[in-house]
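User: Methylthioribulose-1-phosphate dehydratase, Methylomonas methanica:
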Amino acid sequence: MNLKTDEFFSKADELIAAGRFIDSKGWVPATSGNFSARLADGNIAITVSGRHKGQLQRDDIMLIDPHGQSLDGQKPSAETLLHTSLYQRYPDVQAILHPHSINATLAARLFKTEIILEDYELLKALAGIDTHETRISIPIFANDQNIPRLAAQVDEFLDQYGETHAYIIAGHGFYTWGGSVAETLRHLEALEFLFDCEIRLHGVKQP
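Assistant: Predicted structure for Methylthioribulose-1-phosphate dehydratase:
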């Protein structure tokens, strides 16, 4: 039975378009990053491991179940659990984007455990924020090749401190999510701008 429905291909096309935009900004070099979108039946469209995100085709988007198991025989990203754990936590989340950008990498070097974003007009690009008079924290986790352990650390943090719009993995990149691919891409673009602001503001102060 072919499980790839019209909805799957529609979501795949959205991820492909997002990939081209994100790559055009230099945020997913050398096949890095991974993207996903949830389908109405709970299954997930996600990028196949090792594919260049600026050159994605429909065959580069695969289908997994809510637990991360392949439904079409292709190999998902090693970080699939970081996607499925967010979908399990947040029923309203419909898409997750994970770039490996320079700004996210440098932000982790500068700020170590969290990056504080406050009093920026562009914070209003993040869902649920309607004023620049806002202060949010984006947590930074140590990089870890043990993805179940990393996913557990993220879960423990969210259990303790509540919702956030994104998190950074040190020396690696960041994850952000939203109610659609378009909303998640807006979050990604806004956070990139805000990370850049903080790096320029604080980075020049480093010895």
